[in-house]
Hints:
By secondary structure, this protein is mostly helical. The chain has a domain at 3-121 and 212-317. The chain has helices spanning 3-16, 18-55, 62-100, 108-116, 119-153, 157-185, 189-195, 200-210, 215-251, 258-303, 305-317. α1 crosses α10. The longest helix has 46 residues, at 258-303. The protein is globular and about 80 Å long. The two termini are 51 Å apart.
Amino acid sequence: xxxxxxxxxxFRVLRRNPRPVVGIALIIHGxxxxxxxLVTGNVLSSLTSFLTNASSGQVPTAGQTGEILLSYLxxxxxxxxxxxxxxxxxxxxxxxxARGTVGERLSLRGLWARARGxxxxxxxxxxxxxxxxxxxxxxxxxxxxxxxxxxxxxxNSTGATIAAVVLxxxxxxxxxxxxxxxxxxxxxxxxxxxxxxxTLGKAMRRSWSLTHRxxxxxxxxxxxxxxxxxxxxxxxxxxxxxxxxxxxQVGHPTGSSTAAILSTLSVSQILTTVVGELVAxxxxxxxxxxxxxIYIDLRMRKEGLDLALMRFVDERATGNTAAPDPYLAPxxxxxxxxxxxxxxxxxx
Length: 348
């Protein structure tokens, strides 16, 4: 499949079965929006109390400082929860794309029934991603700090600071490239978990095997789809951001109190969060559908899945409801039998 074919098929997922697909995306992103608004409101409330006390000359207490730190940790938790929601959505959309290739159209309940048993392992995969990314960041920071400490121990504090900054920058670029490479090689894990119903370790090895020799093709398609959807999403959200900004300037001009400004920021943050999650629900469907199509395309190229799918459809058409699911295991494609060769003249 080309990029145009994958993009067209991803948009057709919305047209072919919109209610369950958009419904499950809105449910997932609705939960994320509610949690994000609650956490954001808590952060701004703590910050308002902190700044109010500071402006009145009172020294913020340790408890208030701790509240702000906990609030920002909660923001990181929301980011992790968003990743969990993305993996669950990818698994469910993969089911819709896969059943669509054999002519089935599932309801919202049907989609959830097929994906429900794999939700926990998808959550585990999301936390494994968070763990790998966190571990990579910790290693980069530790190495930079150790090198800076060694240089500082030699009596060159200025050189230690410069070396730490340069090393941190270089290692960050290297870490980003490494994370991108590993992320692309493992990007098919949710599809494998849901369709082939493997364990997490086997699914990771399976994704790594499917993307072997297809890294740049997979990366190119996913990156272009992400860029196009990001541009489209920003264009949609831009008018909302402008309206919120103008309303904030009109409602609280220069000279307004800190509490009033922060309350306006809280309302604007809630509005932008809600609109952002609505846009993310639609773009998320297209993004995850394109990844599912890449998975199916690679299996067609490497394993002849297209032949297995045609056999499955033909068997269903003849009334065989017990036909095995072609996605559960790599299909075994039997080579065509050799034509019988007539004996050489004069031989028995």
